[in-house]
Amino acid sequence: MAEAAETEATEHPWMSPEKTEINGRDLTITVLTVGDDRHERGGLAASQSNETTSNVSDGKLGLGERAFSAAGAAFLSAIIVNPLDVAKTRLQAQAAGVAYSHPLSNLISRMAYFGPRTMFADLRCSPSCTRAGVHGTVSMCPPDCFQYRGTLDVFYKIIRQEGFSRLWRGTNAGLALAVPTVGIYLPCYDVFRNWLEEATDKNAPSATPYVPLVAGSLARSLACATCYPIELARTRMQAFKGNQIGKKPPGVWQTLLGVLSHVKSTNNIQKGFQGYRILWTGMGTQLARDVPFSAICWSTLEPMRRRLLSFVGEDSNAASVLGANFSAAFVAGSLAAAATCPLDVAKTRRQIEKDPGRAMRMTTRQTLMEVWREAGIKGLFTGVGPRVARAGPSVGIVVSFYEVVKYVLHNR
User: What global pTM score does this model have?
Assistant: First the structure.
């Protein structure tokens, strides 16, 4: 029997023999050992380690390193997805009543511009416009030839009528906005999340799942309030076409100065420092859009990426960190963008309003009701296609790049 027990132990090392004495006889009883509990605990520890990998690395990274990671992510994202942002803004501005037409589609503009530099290519209508006619060397384009009928139509008409480079209209404002905004947003989110998780673990464990929601909302509010004037300039730059062919459209500072000069020339607006409030016109709508967006995004992203990283275990590397973060962020960003589209429509309407007095009086609720009365549910979701198509890759790029750079800096 002893030999059998030894053979069993050799063939099955996870089983161990135990000897006991019953009625004076030594009996060898083979039982399963609990030694493998160590492996179970190890697996659990590995899973928990993956869930807190980012927290550990955050604790060892300085604010400067986190800001550098975020700025690089914002730069890359702003360059790649700007055309979709332009398409979304054009569709929303058109729905708000902004008229898009060729600068030479009326007689006064043609007479002012007509000269030796005039090229027929600059005067042509879109081929899709069946109502276009030709008068001499000047193409007569009805206003409806310039109506946008969807995302791809926006791309086509901008490229044909304004040039390929106009798809990146407002990129300089986007970079000027994205780098400081994300540089504030993501590091502050890390700090708030780590601090809140530590506080809730000790005092209110049941509140821990809501930490990403609160941390994301706080971080986004801070970033939005700090950089809002640049967001105002970017939206205006993307919404309005240049009125003169051959003339460079205004940049960020010229756009903001134009807003301020219009305020100073309006008698019913207070002079002095109070007039600069116009630069924060629509910030309430922006917060009403961005805070829910961040809350939805981070509440979806955090559990999803932790789940994906748990499949990798302790064998995580830069590629797995990139894949898990991009996948989770892409899904979370797309869902959040679709859910908050009506608030984005309201934000665009308030930002492109040219009457300073009306702009100061408008509220988010009033704007949403106005859109609802004009176009119903379809109006509230104007531009949802390019918005979702932009947000998914944008959030994916920003979060994954940020986390990969943090991972590399932490393991260097």
Answer: 0.67
